[in-house]
């Protein structure tokens, strides 16, 4: 028989990934008692199956590619990567899938960790079923924050479960390099993992249903990344659907829409994400299980005055850094409401408003070349009704790019609002451009006038001199 204990807190957080950790950090800093519930590893998807392991895998791949562009250095790095060493480095960055360090951090901020599956069992109430079946009822005086993130979404192909396909989790944690890998999808996970495994020795085939890669960015981003993947040895096929997948004597067999048969040792489906809200008791508070949770700019779930949905589950921006940003906003809002503070600053760019989610979401894709963007693409800006102009510059024309490496290829675009003379979006594609994105984010989020940007002088000779070239091209 299970025993039930009841404990009251000011705030209960469902999910101990980076988002839940940051909500807990902010509410604890405000003096609120906080419980965090986690059914897997403290640190969540990002720490063990997404951001950290993927970037640990990608770093040696990108470093080698950059070195091969430098005269006098390329000869020293002509051999293959040491796959075993790369995988061991990845394992170090995931703490070998042990969460002791992150648990210690939670203890350090004074939050209580409850391990087990947490479900809402009514307003302001979460029941946690622990590993041994024991139950603990947590009640929240002020707020419950759902920070449970997302899971990989697989297509409804008959018999797919029997194939045991990879999702992002298997792709970032595999202990060995598959001889042949099929990657289904053309987004961030697909392109990054194709980059990794091709470089580590796998023969990679990328199957994309649409017209190209990275469809949410400017078209040239996906084009440049696809060119580089093909040059690296990958087979990239666009406008290609998967009609069936089977595993025959250990070999994965894909039949495409054109009837072509493709074989591999493993297959990765990077075809979207679904919210982890199907079994957290949403029905007990009048919400649809398995749904995304719509929120206002303070991250409070629509129609409630106590429930918050922070990070991926609200479907505003499925990115760790945006989720952590939302967590800081939500934590401040929860604390202010708990203290009975004056009306919250929920207007644009207020202390309790996640305004950047609407206007200035940055993202970097760590492929070779890197692709980074913030704000709106040209098509998105036009669809939103802005009168805009796209300004493009060949990154190879910048002195810093030539110094970065021979044969540098890249492109930059800024989307200028012609009525307000501010930037609606910026995109960079090229080696090393990930470090340029924050400057673009400041410009877009801060709505810096183009006339003022003219006086932000980039250092010479750096790749960031592209800002001067973009502004010169705009002024004509």
From TrEMBL:
Q: Does the keyword Aminoacyl-tRNA synthetase apply?
A: no
Q: Which residues cross the membrane?
A: none
Keyword terms: FAD, Flavoprotein, NAD
What cofactors does the UniProt entry give for this protein?
Answer: FAD
Question: Gene3D superfamilies given for it?
Answer: 3.30.390.30, FAD/NAD(P)-binding domain
Where is the Pyridine nucleotide-disulphide oxidoreductase dimerisation domain positioned along the sequence?
A: 361-467
Please indicate which superkingdom the organism of origin belongs to.
Bacteria
Transcription regulation: present as a keyword of the record? no
List the coiled-coil residues. Answer: none
Q: Which residues form the FAD/NAD(P)-binding domain?
A: 9-321
Query: Record's family?
Result: Belongs to the class-I pyridine nucleotide-disulfide oxidoreductase family.
Q: What is this protein called?
A: NAD(P)/FAD-dependent oxidoreductase
